[in-house]
Sequence to fold (183 residues):
Amino acid sequence: MSEPEEARFGKDQVVRPTRMAEREPARRHWFRERLLLYAAVSFGSIIGSVLRALASMAALAWFGPGFPWGTLFVNLVGSFVIGFYATVTGPDGRAFAGMRQRQFVMSGICGGFTTFSIFSLETFQSLQAGRFAHAGLYIGISVVTWLAAVWVGHALALRLNRLEHQTRKWVPASGKSDARSNR
Fold:
């Protein structure tokens, strides 16, 4: 620091450029990683939302407007997918997925695909219209089937993980063990 700067700001008041320069790459890396994560979640949400709209339109065309089959279907499928994917890519899972990929699928695609906000609105509208049995049936079927789908996805992924662990007992020609088995 030059003498005029020290006189003007004091020795302790001026941040040395070398200290800032040392921290700048870490800040840029942190910011870059966050942007990539948010972009992955956003792109996954776009995919999930478009799939939800297509599924809802298809259900409306097939079954008509009487019962919200499209919402029931996407929440059932989304619950299965998130249960399966979370287990198969979890710490004891068969497949490796980085944080960004997991967030892309679970927060992005599944979050955009499932429709709990729409579920809440449809249930509320049924209650407002005095269709209490319809709303109760919808809530009961939805919650039971979605929880069952998460459980089935989880159980299937656990079974798949066990099968993979049984077949992982070989040693490659290099003599090194499978790197994934050391997690």
About this structure: Residues 3-169+178-182 form one domain. The chain is about 75% helix and 0% strand.
